[in-house]
Amino acid sequence: MTAADLYERYQLAATAHRQHRASCTDCTDTSRCPVGQRLFDAFARLQDAYLNRQRNQRN
Fold first, then answer.
1. Which of 57, 56, 54, 26 is nearest to 40 (CA)?
2. What is the pLDDT of residue 34?
3. How many other C-beta atoms are found inside a 10 Å radius of the C-beta of residue 10?
4. Are 35 and 43 a contacting pair, CB within 8 Å?
5. How many other C-beta atoms can be found within 10 angstroms of the C-beta atom of residue 27?
6. Burial, 43: exposed, middle or buried (Cβ in 10 Å; 0-12, 13-18, 19+)?
7. pLDDT given at position 58
8. Global confidence as pTM
9. Mean per-residue pLDDT, 25-46
10. What stretches of the chain show up as alpha helix (H) in DSSP?
11. Sign of CA dihedral 38, 14, 1, 53
């Protein structure tokens, strides 16, 4: 997987989470419904992977 692929997946996950959050009445800034939690976890995992890859490329 290239850095560009990882970045695109990370951005898509962020968009999916934001869209869900905008329409879900159960999600708040501090708690999430099961779907919102799954989307947030996917976003956070991909963001971490992308940022770690960026850091490793600089070293």
1. 26
2. 98
3. 20
4. no
5. 19
6. buried
7. 80
8. 0.86
9. 95
10. 3-23, 34-58
11. negative
